[in-house]
Write a structure and sequence with these properties.
248 residues; alpha+beta; 3-stranded antiparallel sheet; globular
Length: 248
């Protein structure tokens, strides 16, 4: 049975967070995922081979940006969310708009055909990710939570798992299916199975998608997720020249 939850959230972040999902990466890195955190003051990030993203306690606080600059070093490119504007000296070199959806009516249930994936499966996982491009997945991302997969004749053809863990919540991520095996509902079965594990430990599932991925958003809404908020994701470069590099 789906739990009744508050799904309200602003379109963008403007000031300190009032809900763990408003600044989910920061809430995770200062909470259940603190063991992964590389942190300095009011800035934190995951290790670059785990999940290449950073967060600020308050994106409107110049001191938090100063901490991030010191943490990552001069002239370093970093992905950060949710952020609308950057201080003087920082360069925006890319970005996009993402959406956040939360479980309000999902039927969570195990998938008997799914197997648990671990470090030994990383080569197959990375191969599937390269074929399907579900979003960032790196060599140690599998350490962030439970990942489930479905194989066909020994080859990994679908997977889904857990990524960000703010207090009380767990993000379902890396949902992907090999193009040759789509249309069979494998991704949906894995989402339901991952969600079952999340609920079993007392957390609530949520997920992110690119705002332009309307097909995925419609699918998630059809199985019981509700759109909570939209927020930007920026790729930024810290002020200064990288160490060991001569300015032009």
């Amino acid at each position: 049975m789906a739990q009744s939850i508050d799904v309200r959230g602003g379109e963008t972040l403007a000031g300190p967070s009032t809900h763990p999902l408003d600044n989910a990466v920061w809430a995770a890195l200062t909470g259940p995922h603190a063991r992964f955190a590389e942190r300095l003051g009011r800035a934190a990030r995951y290790p670059a081979d785990v999940y290449d993203v950073a967060a600020l306690a308050d994106p409107a606080d110049p001191a938090a940006w100063a901490d991030l600059g010191t943490l990552v070093g001069p002239g370093t490119v970093v992905r950060i969310k949710p952020v609308e504007e950057v201080p003087s000296g920082w360069d925006v070199i890319g970005g996009g708009l993402g959406v956040q959806l939360v479980d309000t009516a999902l039927r969570a249930e195990p998938a008997p055909e799914a197997v648990r994936l671990g470090p030994d499966d990383v080569p197959q996982i990375l191969d599937l990710v390269a074929r399907t491009r579900p979003g960032p997945f790196l060599k140690r991302t599998v350490q962030l939570g439970s990942y489930l997969g479905i194989r066909h004749r020994g080859r990994l053809i679908a997977m889904a798992g857990e990524r960000i863990r703010p207090p009380g919540w767990t993000e379902i991520s890396a949902v992907c299916t090999d193009p040759e095996h789509r249309g069979r509902g494998l991704g949906t079965r894995l989402v339901r199975a991952v969600a079952a594990g999340i609920r079993a430990r007392g957390d609530l599932p949520f997920l992110h998608a690119a705002a332009g991925n309307t097909q995925a958003i419609r699918l998630y809404e059809s199985i019981g997720f509700t759109l909570r908020r939209r927020s930007p994701i920026l790729l930024v470069r810290s002020p200064g020249t990288p160490h060991g590099t001569r300015p032009l």
